[in-house]
Amino acid sequence: MEQPKREIILSGIRPTGNLHLGNFYGALRKFVQIQDAHDCNFFVADLHALTTATDPEALHANVKNVLAEYLAAGIDPEKATIFVQSDIPEISEMYLLLNMHVGIGELMRTAAFKDKARKCLGLSGECDDSDEAFEHQIIGGDTNKRVCAGLLTYPTLMAVDILIQKATKVPVGKDQLQHLELTRRFARRFNSFYHVDLFPEPTDFDFGGAPVKVPGLNGSGKMGKSEGNCIYLIDDPKVIRKKVMRATTDEGPKEPNSPMSEPVANLFTLLELTSTPDVVKHFRDAYADCSIRYGDLKKQLAEDIVAVTTPIRDRITDILANEEYLRKVVRDGAERARARAADTLAEMRQIMGIRPL
Ligand code: TRP
To answer: Is residue 142 very low, low, confident or very high in pLDDT (cuts 50, 70, 90)?
Structure first.
């Protein structure tokens, strides 16, 4: 009997460091929840990392780390296809082909490009569209600093990751929605230019419910890699306790039922993710009647985080020690991912007129 057509899901993480609690709740844990019902493909975007990372040893180590972290979080290579981007040479070839239909103007207007290019050039502050210093420096200006072409074509490469698998659903964070929009535009443009129906237009995967927000420890916004702001899945309990105890708070509520400052609200959000409802209620009540002691809240939060991360950390250690297993996972994954990639690339070459004589 024919199976109903399953949605093809694809997502990637750049191997620029270890994964943290934000990656776990925001991505990995959700990937695990959907891997049974869909055709899931999760990969390590090492070619993308090359746009900003230049230390070969660190890059190589981080590819392994991210793989181990994917697996330790519960992504199952029997259910999902797990692979390393550079193991699929078809991606690099399609990147060349697709670039012929991508405008340098649209790439230069991408927000992520402007941000990262400004960092490369050592320009500080927010970018704005009329920034002449930026425009001047980016074409060489009077400086010997460079913005690499790979950074400019980052969206092409990302579109290729998605389109080469003909993925239809792409779970990404808010900061990646513009890249996904470009991917749709490139797909549409290619299809209409050659009068074909080769690429489906991918959309963000809707997990239902409100997006999970994982705040950092330094009182501001979301958990990111900056020092003291994030808890890595591989942090040991001592490190976790130290980081949590140093988290930003305020002077404490002075009147019953006062509104919460952002740093304190952030700690409650983390507690909600990692603890039980009665513990959360206990501390909320204590905040409301001004009896709360942030030290107690932090101690509790640290222990709850340790309880979540310890089994993951143990698995990461085991997996990293088993090179044979890691190699098998990526070999099998690459085989599956390449099969589909090779089909798409062959169709694309044919369509574009790159054909054997
Ligand atoms: N650009 C993504 C990020 O930085 C990583 C990525 C690369 C990706 N290729 C992708 C995500 C394809 C989804 C699909 O987070």
So the answer is: low
Q: Judge if the beta carbon of residue 8 lies within 6 A of ligand 1.
A: no
Centre of ligand 1 from the C-alpha of residue 113, in Å: 14
Q: Is 161 in the pocket of ligand 1 (CB under 6 A)?
A: yes
Nearest ligand 1 atom to alpha carbon 175: 15
Which residue's alpha carbon is nearest to atom 9 within ligand 1? 158
Token readout for 221 is 């916004």
pLDDT in tens, 59-77: 999 999 999 999 999 999 9
The secondary structure element, H or E, covering residue 169 is strand 169-170
Task: Mean pLDDT check: name the lowest of 33-42, 77-86, 111-120.
Answer: 111-120
Give the chain's radius of gyration (CA, Å): 23
What pTM does this model have?
Answer: 0.93
Report pLDDT digits (tens) over 236-292: 999 999 999 999 999 999 999 999 999 999 999 999 999 999 999 999 999 999 999
Q: Pocket of ligand 1, candidates 158, 164, 166, 183: which has the most ligand atoms within 8 Å of its Cβ, to mutate? A: 158
Q: Rounded distance, CA 116 to CA 52, Å?
A: 9
269 close to 247: Cβ distance less than 8 angstroms: no
Measured between alpha carbons, how far is 44 from 31 in angstroms, rounded to an integer?
14
Residue from 338, 315, 340, 240 nearest 20 by CA: 240
Q: Which residues make Cβ contacts (< 8 Å) with residue 163, sequence separation at least 6? A: 94, 98, 183, 186, 187, 199, 202, 344
C-alpha 297/C-alpha 72 separation (Å) is: 28
CA dihedral angle for residue 309, residue 59, residue 124, residue 249, rounded to 10 degrees: 10
CA distances to 51, 177, 178, 222, 306 from 171, rounded to whole Å, are 22, 10, 13, 18, 27
